[in-house]
Amino acid sequence: MEKTATLIKPEAMIFDMDGTLFQTETLLLPAYHKLFDILREEGHYEGETPDEELMLSCLGMLLPDIWKKVLPSGTPEAHRRADELLLQLELEGLENEAAVLYPGVKETLEELHRRGVRLFVASNGLEHYVKGIAEARGIMPLFEGIYSAGEHQTSTKVDLVKLLLDQHDIGHAWMVGDRSSDVEAGKENGQTVIGCHYAGFGADQELKGADVVIHSFSQLLRLHDQAE
C-alpha cells in the first residue's frame, strides 16, 4: 500500500466496476471471441480477431472509443452491432460462475456498509451491464446508487461523478478505481482518490496522482481504520 496523503474518513465511497470490483477478463474474453465470430458470420468484419490484450487495454473507456481502437476500420453499423453483441454476450456470460468479483470485494463492501459508509458505483459501461454484474454477484443491495455512462449519457467520468455527487449531496468521498479516468474523475471533483493496482490492465503511470495505491481490495478497510 502506497500513501502520499493523510486521509479523512469519507461519507461515501464511489467505485469503478471493471478492474476494481469485477475481474472483467473472466467475463469479457469469452464474449470478445464470440463477438468477432458473429461479426465475421454477419459480414461486418474480415480477418483474425484482434489481440485480446488490445481489448483489455481499453477497459475504462467509453464504448465508441473502444471500437475506434479495436475496430478502427469498422463501419458505424459494425460498431453499433458490436455494442449490441457485447452487451448480449456479457449478460449471458454472467450466468457462468467463472465470471467473478476480485477476492474480498463482497466482504469488504459488506463491512463498509455496516460501518455506515455510503456506497456507489460510477462506471463508463452500459447500464444493463454494470447493474447486471451487481445483481448477479449479490452486491446490488449494498449500493445507494449505480451510475453508468450508458444510463446518464455522460461524455466523461468527471461529468458522471459530478452528477452523482450533486444528486446525493455528497461533500467528501473516496473515488476508488484502477484507471487514469478514475483519478481524473476524483481529482477534478475535489475528492480523495484510491488507486487499485491489482487488475494489471493499465500502464505504469495509470494511477499517477492518486492519494493512495492499494494492491488488494480488502486494504480499503485498513485505510478506513487509519483515516482521521
Question: What is the gist of this entry?
Answer:
With 228 residues, the chain is an alpha/beta fold.
Structural notes for this entry:
The chain has 228 residues and is of the alpha/beta class. The protein folds into two domains: 2-23 and 100-226, Rossmann fold (3-Layer(aba) Sandwich), CATH 3.40.50; 25-93. The protein contains ten helices and seven strands. The chain has helices at 25-41, 52-57, 63-70, 76-93, 105-114, 127-136, 149-152, 157-167, 180-188, 219-226, and strands spanning 2-3, 12-15, 118-123, 145-148, 173-177, 192-196, 212-214. Strands 1-7-6-5-2-3-4 form a seven-stranded mixed sheet, sandwiched between helices. Helix 9 links the parallel strand 5 (173-177) and strand 6 (192-196). Helix 1 packs across helix 4 (76-93) and helix 8 packs across helix 9 (180-188).
Question: Any key phrases for this structure?
Answer:
single chain; 228 residues; alpha/beta; Rossmann fold; 7-stranded mixed sheet; 7 strands; 44% helix; globular; HAD_sf; HAD-like_sf
Secondary-structure blueprint:
Elements: E1 2-3, E2 12-15, H1 25-41, H2 52-57, H3 63-70, H4 76-93, H5 105-114, E3 118-123, H6 127-136, E4 145-148, H7 149-152, H8 157-167, E5 173-177, H9 180-188, E6 192-196, E7 212-214, H10 219-226
